């Protein structure tokens, strides 16, 4: 349920990002008649991707599903708490969507606060209930993430070298899950390097609230997490569903997404260095070229998302059954000792580990 919810929320949040890039494709107001509605779209996009895509997929989806399988447990330690952590999410997401259609600032709808709710946008004055709906939504989503978290990891710069060294010393096959994993390392590293730049107070004073920061946190947070999710999705898809996926569709999804997101976000470093501020719906002509290229990249990544959805449908239509361990001798963790898909209540007795 977590993964299905994350996919649905991801399609909606991705649609919001496409509208943002359509607006910024050229100077002037294209889509939104009022810059406030652009701020609303940016705010809702950011909150959707963080609280309703990345966290449910990583912590709720893969964490809750595979940690018990990997440690030989029949289920999560507190299944009812885990259950309520999920069912808080649809209501929370509904409140966030509702906040877009009720009064915020005088005379306009939605909460254009930015996804971090930082001033000055969050202190612009919202006498309507839009911000109230948004804050209640975040509280519920936060409660859901706390109730569902039995697993958390904090990647650091040191781990990049250990990941690369692991592949360097191993016998690797460049199948779809590994492509996504390598893509994650690349994107996470780019975000980390630009983070080192922003850690310099003198440089950060000039670049803060510019598109350099937008590019940085998308590389390290959004793109890195998304590529890690897709790596896990393709690796465990046979175990979760009992069906194999099309290797061609998986690789096509990867290359379209990898090319698209880099084309979308890498030029934003140049926009930030040139001084383009974030959270603006319009800009001078001097920023037009890089914004146009960035928008084209977002359309390519949207095409990749369509390929992903088609690939899922194709896997369920052709029903090519997966073996218990489709990856061979290299997959040695406990989940691959179970049939695909695993029974609802596995490991009635402790498994024997050789």
Structure report:
With 354 residues, the chain is mainly alpha-helical. The chain is built from ten helices and no strands. The protein starts with a helix and ends in a 36-residue tail after the last helix. The relative contact order is 0.12.
Total strands: 0
Q: Overall pLDDT, averaged?
A: 85
What structural class do you assign from the helix and strand content? mainly alpha
The whole-angstrom Rg is 21 Å
Measured by DSSP, the beta-strand proportion falls in: under 5%
Low-confidence stretches: none
Helix content: 55-70%
Distance between the termini: 33 Å
Could you describe the largest sheet, including whether it forms a barrel?
none
Structural shape: globular
Helix and strand succession? HHHHHHHHHH
Count of DSSP helices?
10
Describe the secondary-structure layout.
Layout: H1 2-24, H2 35-71, H3 79-99, H4 130-148, H5 157-168, H6 176-198, H7 201-207, H8 211-241, H9 247-274, H10 288-318
Helix pairs in contact: 1-2, 1-10, 2-3, 2-4, 2-8, 3-4, 6-8, 6-9, 8-9, 9-10
Question: Could you write a compact summary of the structure shown?
Answer:
With 354 residues, the chain is mainly alpha-helical.
Key traits:
354 residues; mainly alpha; 10 helices; 0% strand
């Amino acid at each position: 349920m977590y993964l299905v919810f994350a996919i649905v929320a991801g399609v909606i949040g991705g649609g919001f990002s496409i509208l943002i890039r359509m607006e910024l494709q050229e100077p002037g107001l294209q889509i939104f008649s009022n810059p406030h509605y652009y701020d609303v779209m940016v705010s809702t996009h950011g909150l959707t991707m963080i609280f309703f895509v990345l966290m449910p997929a990583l912590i709720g989806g893969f964490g809750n599903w595979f940690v018990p399988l990997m440690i030989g447990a029949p289920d999560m330690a507190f299944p009812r708490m885990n259950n309520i952590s999920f069912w808080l999410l649809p209501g929370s997401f509904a409140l966030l969507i509702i906040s877009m259609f009720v009064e915020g600032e005088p005379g306009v709808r939605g909460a254009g606060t930015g996804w971090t709710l930082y001033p000055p946008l969050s202190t612009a004055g919202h006498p309507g209930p839009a911000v109230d709906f948004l804050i209640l939504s975040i509280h519920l989503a936060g409660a859901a993430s706390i109730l569902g978290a039995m697993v958390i990891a904090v990647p650091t710069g040191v781990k990049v070298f250990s990941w690369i060294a692991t592949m360097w010393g191993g016998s690797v096959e460049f199948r779809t899950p590994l492509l996504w994993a390598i893509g994650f390392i690349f994107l996470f590293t780019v975000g980390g390097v630009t983070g080192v730049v922003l850690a310099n107070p003198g440089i950060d004073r000039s670049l803060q609230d510019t598109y350099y920061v937008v590019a940085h946190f998308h590389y390290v947070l959004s793109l890195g997490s998304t590529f890690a999710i897709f790596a896990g999705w393709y690796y465990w898809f046979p175990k979760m569903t009992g069906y194999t996926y099309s290797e061609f569709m998986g690789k096509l999804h990867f290359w379209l997404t990898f090319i698209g997101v880099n084309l979308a976000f890498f030029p934003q470093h140049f926009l930030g260095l040139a001084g383009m501020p974030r959270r603006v719906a319009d800009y001078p002509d001097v920023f037009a070229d890089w914004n146009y290229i960035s928008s084209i990249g977002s359309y390519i990544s949207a095409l990749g998302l369509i390929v992903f959805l088609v690939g899922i449908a194709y896997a369920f239509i052709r029903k090519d059954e997966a073996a218990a361990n489709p990856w061979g001798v290299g997959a040695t963790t406990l989940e691959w000792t179970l049939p695909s898909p695993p029974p609802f209540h596995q490991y009635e007795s402790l498994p024997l580990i050789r």
